[in-house]
Write a structure and sequence with these properties.
single chain; about 250 residues; alpha/beta; Rossmann fold; seven-stranded mixed sheet; two-stranded antiparallel ribbon; 9 strands; binds S-adenosylmethionine
Amino acid sequence: MSTKDNQKVYFGDKKVTKQNKKDGVESIFTKVSENYDLMNDLMSAGMHRFWKKSFIDAANIKKNENCLDLAAGTGDIAKLISKKVRGKTVYLCDQNNEMIEKAKERSLNEGFYQKCFFDVSSAEKLPYKKETFDHVFISFGFRNFSDKKGSLKEIKRVLKKGGKLHILEFSKSQGENFSKIYDFYSYNFIPTIGDLVTGDRKSYEYLVKSIRTHEDQEAMLSLFEDAGYLDCDYKNIFKGIVALHRGTK
Ligand SMILES: C[S@@+](CC[C@H](N)C(=O)[O-])C[C@H]1O[C@@H](n2cnc3c(N)ncnc32)[C@H](O)[C@@H]1O
């Protein structure tokens, strides 16, 4: 293992090796996959649906464009993309097999399977040829990556020239009073809802901590620019609880 691989990264609020983070994230998403969609609705009071729709609407996807839903989870983003394209041009990739199996089942039930390809792989080593995609989307997955800089480089490899990376992620809430309410809600209610619905308090404590230790809006902008993306920007959604980040190859 190289020195770079031994560098410590945040897993929740603890610093661990990249491999330990990868294993920890894998174990959490295997545990939460069963109730993933229900918990998203409960924790965000359904607002994640609106955030995700605005995320995809803002991308201005053309009917024949190749799109990658990376860290696809159960396929919320792929489903929205499938409504914008005509052919089989939607790729779902996630490192967690249980999540991808849920996405497959759901796409069959909800009628978008025929537009999709499914892959189990990590963002740090994508199973695609260089310059394959017009758009790469990551929704609420990036903060879990064990090698954020490496993944940005790898995504750039698979983007076409002029192709765009779009990341929707939790970020730093704006305004002192609002942030206090948000902190109270997330530290107290999210783990409790998680415990009541799934019996797994720890995974939801990880969720809250992983949001707090993730790069804020400006730090994300620097990560994009350092990785060589052009025209980088971000837009706060819901007072910065969530931010939409964009860059072009
Ligand atoms: C919070 S879920 C988001 C799922 C979906 N995109 C959504 O918005 O509902 C995060 C997903 O990221 C995946 N993930 C975490 N680290 C990853 C990595 N390094 N490469 C690929 N997928 C990863 C997890 O397996 C999980 O399915």
